[in-house]
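Readers of this paper often ask what the protein records in our data store actually look like. This encoding replaces a full spatial description with a residue-level series of whole-number codes. For reference, a complete record is included directly beneath this paragraph.
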Amino acid sequence: MVSNGGRFVIYRSLIRPEQFELVLARGGLARRWKVLNGVPTDTKTRHIAVEQPTVCAPYRRFSKRAAVFSRSPAPAYTWDAGIWYSVGDSEGYRSGHLRFCLRGLLLRGRWALVRMSGEGAGRHPPWLFVLTAPPDGHE
């Protein structure tokens, strides 16, 4: 089930508690998003996630204490960690619509990252981070 996914970690800022960093690691690479206003836990909310540069995923064992090193200079702690896998198109990142399931210590369910387009989006445009299906046994 994890052949099209890998490990994930979510960091929470100690300075700005509403700011998180989502890291999805697979195949030696870690894609990162800075999530503003927390992780969505309601299917009716949309949160902005600003893509960060991709980094090499360290080959470390994931645990509650240190899953992947946060690349942010601000102090942060590991808020959740676990496994993730893509749902539907495994190349969703390239098309700008990445649908995935998280199975962590705190979070379980399906989320999506949808790339926003438009003028002024820049090299790394913002994404919308949404909960598409809360955990109810139908993951």
